[in-house]
Design a protein that fits this description.
Methylamine Dehydrogenase, Chain H; mainly beta; five-stranded antiparallel beta sheet
Amino acid sequence: MPSEQFRRRFLGSLAGVASVGTAAALARSESTGDRDAADDSGPGDTDGRGGGERGTMATTAGGSPRVVWSETFGTTDDRPVGAVSAHGDGVALLISPRETDYGLRLVRFLPDGSRQWDRRLDAPEWYSGELVRADDGYVAVVRASDEERPWLLSLGSDGERRWDRYVELDDALEPNSTAAGRRPGGGVVLGGGMGEDEGRVTWVLGTDSDGDREWLRTYDTHGFRVMDVAARHDGGYLLVGESDPHAVEGTLPFVLATDESGREQWRRTLGGYAEECIGVLARPDGAVLLGRIYDHDRQEAVLSTVDDRGFPVWRRAFEGVEPRDLVDTGDGFAVAAASGLHGTDRLGRRRWDRDFEYEDLTVAAVAGDRLFVAGQVDSVGRLGGPEMWAAGVSLTTA
C-alpha cells in the first residue's frame, strides 16, 4: 500500500494518529450509484498488492484477522521500512540504514516469520525508495540524495547484488517524488515530476530488464506529483498522485493513463479539497485507488474505484484513519494505516479492524496465504534508533 509512495510513506514523516475505534464510528460511506452491486472484479498483479483468488480472510471470533506471528528486529535512525515486494510465498523489505551507515538493507521473510536472508548492500545516500518484483528477483529503485537521477539495484531471488546503475533523465527533469512499478516482460517503469522551481511537468520512463532507458515521456500537468505507478492489464500504466501542492485551493487527486510506451491516453482529477491519491491497484475494468484527506487536523482514508476510462464508480471514506498502503486480500481490500489494518469487502464497505502491539504500520503485501505488514516500534532500539517490526496475518485458501 507506501510512501512521498509514496513520498510520505518513504520518508516516514507522518505522525501517528489516535487509535481507531469501532467500524461503525469510523466508516462514512459515499456511493456513486447502483454500479456497486456489479463490481466484483478480481485483483491484478501489483507486486503483492493484488492477491488473486484465495477465498476469505481468516478471522478471530471477534471478526478481525488472526495474527500468526510478530517480531521486532534491527534498528534504524528515525527511518522506517521503506518498501515491500512479494515474491513466491514470502516478501522482501527494503530498509533505509542509519544516517551514519549509508547503504540499504533487504530482509526476506517466509510465511512462518523466519528470515530467509538478510542483506546489507552498498548504495548511494538516499531518502526514498521502492522495491519492484522482477521475474527472478527484485529491483530496488531509490532517489539518491546527491544525484538528480534515480538509482537502480538489481538483486537475485537470494538478495545478492547483480548490477546497479543510474537512470539518465533529460535536462531540467528531477527524480522528484519518484514512484516505480513493474513492467510486463521485464524492466521497471518510473514516474516523477520536475523540480518545484523548474516547471510543472510530470514524466514517466521505461527501462529494459538491464535497467537501460527505453523511452521517456513528459506531460504538461500543471504540477501533478506522482505517488504511485501500476501496470494496466492492457499493457499500459496508471500514474496517480496529487495536483499542484502549492495551489491556493488545495490539492486534488489525479489519475493519468498511458499506453505501453508511456503515451498519454487520458487523465482525470478526482475527489475534493486537500486530498491526494497515494496508491493504486490496477484491475481489468479500471483501478482501486487509495487516497488521503489531510485538511489541518482532519484525517481520512479514502478508498474508491474508477472504470477503465478513469470515471468514478464508488467511493468510501474512513474518518480518523491515516493511510499508508493498500493490498487486495482476494475477498476485499486491506488499508494499512498508522493505526493498524482496516479491512473492507469488494465494494469498500468496512468489515474489520486489526491493531497491533506496535504502531506506525508502514507497508503491507500479500504473498501466498499470508498478509505481511511491517513498520517501526515507537520505543528506542538497541543501537539508538527505533526497532522495526513485522507480522504475518493469516489468509484462508479457497
